[in-house]
Write a structure and sequence with these properties.
By secondary structure, the protein is an alpha+beta fold. Helices cover 27% and strands 31% of the residues. The two termini are 33 Å apart.
């Protein structure tokens, strides 16, 4: 089950995963993972599980939540989902700022969602988190609730440092572990909005643990290949548009929350993550990365010139070795394909080369312009990769 669970998590953004050298449908893996839990015993679920609540990381995209919800619906009569930050606020009975520690970031949920990357010394991360909490909630009397999942490496130690930094500001702090979160999930009150019609783009419209029904709570706390968005100074609000945090390997950036994500390993171009517009198949973002210790942007330009020279004429055009995108120095060029074009921005952050391609129909760059600039502006190396 450990191998199956790991495969399900690693491939949650893909239709297929590799398990013991064989391709397996990811939705099938998730059904197996949930069925392995006590709350999902097939011989008991018809009488035992009427409702199931999936508590997911607050920064998950709707497509990820949808994947797990789809699997859960095979095990329970009614399935609902809530972000961990919503559930955690039930612990205080009043508005609170939730500090949610993940593998590569610390997400801070208040009136807006902000992320601080977990790079550098833990005490520096804790200080940055405390500053971000102060920006979100100016009142030092509001509670900061720290979520330290046991499955996240170093979460307990970082939670202690963050708690100390916040208490130094005079702010009350509550720390939550896995056992406490499960107790909250199984005792949360009814949702007063349960009778409202569910939103068309959300899986959160079902009743929340109604009285009189047996219910199961599945609490997800995982390290995944999609996590963080970082701003110019290491902290970035998500803003008013629905966005999510995408981390692939050593790179993090902000992408639209409702754009499906997939890994592309076939066809022209390098292996990459592709994030598609749900309304136009020719509008997309492409993200690739490479470790390039000691490389300068001028070295990057030379490498790209050699690579482009090996391709057919007219495919790669408008090459600029001293370009700028979203205010960041970069190597830029345009890739011309049948039905679309891709404007590439190649950045360096420490020892990582980040390439972001903004795809649109010919003459239709406005469809991807804002999304493109947001992705380029937020793209950074994470997980200690900057200095490696």
């Amino acid at each position: 089950m450990a191998e199956i669970t790991s495969a399900a998590l690693d491939a949650i953004d893909d239709p297929l995963a590799m398990l013991a050298g064989r391709p397996v449908a990811v939705d099938s893996l998730w059904r197996t993972v949930l069925r392995s839990l006590d709350c999902g015993k097939p011989d008991q679920r018809k009488t035992m599980v009427k409702k199931m609540v999936v508590v997911h990381p607050s920064w998950w995209s709707s497509s990820r939540v949808g994947m797990v919800i789809g699997a859960a619906k095979t095990l329970a009569d009614d399935v609902s989902a809530r972000p961990r930050s919503w559930l955690l606020t039930q612990a205080t009975g009043e508005p609170a700022v939730v500090v949610e520690i993940a593998e590569r970031l610390v997400a801070i949920a208040g009136d807006e969602l902000t992320a601080v990357p977990r790079r550098g010394e833990p005490h520096l991360v804790a200080e940055e988190v405390a500053r971000a909490v102060g920006e979100i909630s100016c009142s030092t009397t509001s509670v900061a609730l720290i979520d330290a999942p046991g499955t996240v490496a170093g979460a307990a130690a970082l939670a202690t440092l963050i708690a100390g930094a916040l208490r130094g500001q005079g702010r009350p702090v509550v720390k939550m572990d896995d056992a406490g979160l499960v107790r909250l999930a199984t005792s949360a009150p009814d949702d007063p909005a349960a009778d409202d019609p569910p939103p068309s783009d959300s899986v959160r419209g079902h009743a929340w643990m109604p009285r009189g029904f047996a219910a199961a709570a599945v609490v997800l706390s995982v390290a995944l290949p999609a996590v963080a968005a970082m701003g110019r100074h290491g902290v970035a609000p998500m803003g008013t548009a629905p966005t999510t945090f995408l981390v692939e390997g050593r790179v993090a950036l902000t992408v639209p929350a409702n754009w499906p994500t997939q890994r592309v390993v076939t066809g022209p171009g390098s292996a990459r993550v592709q994030v598609n517009s749900p309304s136009d198949p020719e509008v997309a973002l492409h993200v690739t990365q490479s470790r390039v210790p000691d490389e300068k942007l001028s070295d990057t330009a030379v490498r790209l010139i050699h690579a482009i020279g090996e391709q057919p004429a007219g495919v790669f055009v408008d090459f600029n070795s001293s370009g700028t995108t979203a205010g960041r120095p970069a190597v830029t060029y345009r890739e011309v394909r049948v039905g679309h074009q891709v404007r590439w921005t190649v950045l360096l952050d420490g020892a990582v080369r980040i390439s972001i391609g903004c795809q649109s129909r010919p003459g239709g760059e406005d469809a991807v312009r804002d999304v493109c600039e947001q992705a380029v502006r937020s793209a950074h190396a994470v997980g200690g990769a900057r200095g490696q």
